[in-house]
Design brief:
Layout lengths: L6 H5 L11 H20 L3 H14 L2 H13 L3 H14 L2 H13 L3 H13 L3 H13 L3 H14 L4 H10 L3 H20 L5 H17 L3 H13 L3 H13 L3 H13 L3 H13 L3 H13 L3 H13 L4 H12 L3 H13 L3 H13 L3 H13 L3 H13 L3 H13 L3 H14 L2 H13 L3 H14 L17 H11 L3 H13 L3 H13 L3 H13 L3 H13 L3 H14 L2 H14 L2 H19 L1
């Protein structure tokens, strides 16, 4: 049994609680106090014998303390009986110690009742343990209340919570921490059940975490730091992480490192990660590995990833796989991915499946995708959708896309939106396209804009002097897609600008689309330039569009060359327009080609 409680509680006297002084001053005062108590004890003062014995016991002088404690105990001093029990317990005489504790407890010593209760619990006599611990707890002894709560909790007794709370309220830091953890669990459970009491429970949990942390409980300081960080109170969170880390809590040192990294102080972050990693924190070892990998120090990164793996962190094997894959070491990457995947790492399972798929092993990839998806990997669910879509199994593919989309996967939401559009379910399509567009998909933004555009009533003719209309929602989505580089959206934005008479804006968007490879953008830019009298430059853009397969651009070029008198070149482009179509263009181009041929043969 370890020494129980602080000095005042253990020795049942407040005489040793003195104002803080310098070390030398405290030593001098203690020596003077010891001399005074020794003289009084030699004169037969029972209380002095008890206090002197306690003082020597605290110092570790068991031989010097024992005669004074025995003498005071014989004279009926209950504090001496309790401390004599502590001394005998330290010597290894547990049964004799229990006898003296019983004497002190019967005389009303709460500390002795606590010690006796723990003695009985260590020997498996729970009824006796409960009796004495309850005696101690009911007298207001914090250690007794905590030990009683621990016993009752072990048995699943509902009364454990009340005594744990009593111990916490009396300043027991471990009780405060355990109570806070219990409140956390209750809040989580009530949150899942839809109850409204979760916030109040979390607030109370934070209060007890704070109480325990203020008394030096390092895990409570860690939890308090995490709560504050989640709330955005980073400065205070950092202070508690620092307190916990200095007390040896590796997880706090790791968390402090991430906080410093996010603040831009990578060097200080590395110091704390190193400290945590050396104490066996796999997460910190992974962070160090990633830091060195970013610097191109791959050997050092690999060493830290291996350290993370040795610490039991499966992310170490996964990160080793990523490192090997980046270096083109495919066989080693597969080995590490497999190791992490077999340990249940879902992203490693997905990465392994991707690697196998890239190597042409579709049959080997599918079960790993499935395993990862079932474990909650959103990317794996999306990849399964791609896999089944490639086989033409659209219904199964859609099911996986829907699963990934429900978890917030942008591209999966786009695929679901496209599928719903094909089915004619415009409402469902719009819902998924909005999710994908909001997640940053330019294609989704464009398709959403087309859906909204189709519903838009035709605008009345713009009258001179009327204010320019505000942009509709569909125009805003076209703009967003265009700004993200979507070529068809850029062409559409250009067309809307041209319809408003804003030639400069229209030309800007057509040019951006054309330079990105859009044949429609090049054709429309050519039309705009031709209307502005720049037919030579227009011909340059029509040539680009025609070379990319745009039939109307080829027909325009045939007409340009025909007007210039370059009949052979005109005929060549007319032939190309006939081939490219569409039908209306092919028919017009055929008539022009025949006319040019007759002109040439005349």
């Amino acid at each position: 049994m370890d020494v129980m409680g602080d000095k005042a509680t253990l020795f049942e006297t407040g005489r040793f609680v003195q104002p803080s002084q310098g070390d030398a001053g405290e030593a001098a005062d203690e020596a003077a106090e010891e001399l005074r108590q020794r003289l009084a004890a030699e004169a037969g003062d029972v209380e002095a014998m008890s206090v002197l014995g306690a003082l020597l016991l605290r110092r570790g002088d068991l031989d010097g303390a024992e005669p004074h404690l025995r003498a005071a105990t014989t004279a009926g001093d209950r504090a001496a009986a309790n401390n004599l029990g502590v001394l005998l317990h330290q010597r290894g005489y547990a049964e004799e110690a229990a006898g003296w504790w019983r004497i002190a407890a019967v005389a009303g010593s709460a500390a002795a009742a606590h010690a006796l209760g723990r003695h009985h619990r260590e020997r498996g006599d729970e009824p006796a343990a409960e009796y004495w611990l309850r005696q101690s707890a009911e007298q207001g002894h914090a250690l007794g209340a905590y030990a009683l709560a621990d016993l009752l909790e072990h048995r699943g007794d509902a009364g454990a919570d009340d005594w744990m709370r009593a111990a916490a309220e009396r300043g027991h830091r471990e009780a405060a921490y355990r109570l806070a953890r219990a409140l956390d669990r209750r809040a989580a459970a009530e949150g899942e059940d839809g109850a409204d009491n979760g916030v109040a429970l979390l607030e109370e949990a934070e209060r007890f975490y704070r109480q325990a942390a203020a008394r030096g409980h390092r895990r409570a300081a860690l939890q308090l730091g995490a709560i504050l960080e989640k709330r955005g109170e980073l400065k205070e969170a950092g202070r508690w992480y620092l307190t916990s880390a200095k007390d040896g809590e590796a997880r706090a040192a790791c968390a402090l490192g991430f906080l410093l990294r996010d603040a831009g102080d990578t060097e200080s972050a590395a110091v704390w990660w190193l400290r945590a990693a050396q104490d066996g924190d796999g997460n910190a070892a992974n962070a160090l590995g990633a830091l060195h990998a970013e610097r191109g120090e791959t050997q050092t990164a690999e060493r830290w990833y291996r350290a993370a793996m040795d610490a039991g962190d499966d992310n170490g094997a996964y990160n080793l796989g990523l490192l090997c894959a980046e270096q083109g070491r495919t066989a080693q990457a597969e080995q590490w991915y497999r190791r992490a995947a077999y340990a249940g790492h879902r992203e490693a399972a997905n990465a392994l499946a991707v690697l196998l798929l890239q190597g042409g092993d579709t049959a080997g990839a599918e079960p790993w995708f499935s395993k990862a998806a079932e474990a909650g990997s959103v990317d794996a669910a999306f990849n399964l959708g791609i896999l089944f879509a490639g086989r033409g199994e659209e219904r199964i593919a859609l099911r996986w896309y829907e699963r990934a989309a429900a978890a917030g996967h942008t591209e999966a939401a786009l695929q679901v939106g496209i599928a719903r559009l094909r089915e004619g379910d415009e409402a469902a399509a719009e819902r998924h396209l909005r999710c994908a567009a909001g997640g940053g998909s330019a294609e989704a933004a464009y398709r959403l804009a087309t859906v909204l555009d189709a519903r838009r009533p035709p605008e009345p003719a713009h009258e001179l002097g009327e204010p320019v209309h505000e942009k509709s929602e569909c125009e805003e989505w076209y703009d967003r897609a265009a700004s993200q580089g979507h070529r068809r959206a850029q062409v559409r934005v250009g067309m809307m600008a041209a319809a408003r008479g804003d030639v400069v804006e229209a030309a800007r968007w057509y040019r951006r689309a054309a330079e990105a490879g859009s044949r429609n953008g090049a054709f429309n830019l050519g039309l705009l330039l031709a209307r502005e009298g720049s037919e030579p430059e227009a011909a340059v853009w029509w040539t680009r569009a025609a070379d990319a397969g745009h039939g109307r651009a080829a027909l325009r070029l045939a007409l340009v060359y025909a007007r210039r008198g370059e009949l052979a070149e005109g005929q060549r482009w007319a032939d190309r327009a006939v081939t490219l179509g569409p039908d209306e263009v092919s028919q017009r181009a055929a008539r022009l080609r025949d006319a040019l041929r007759e002109e040439l043969s005349a």
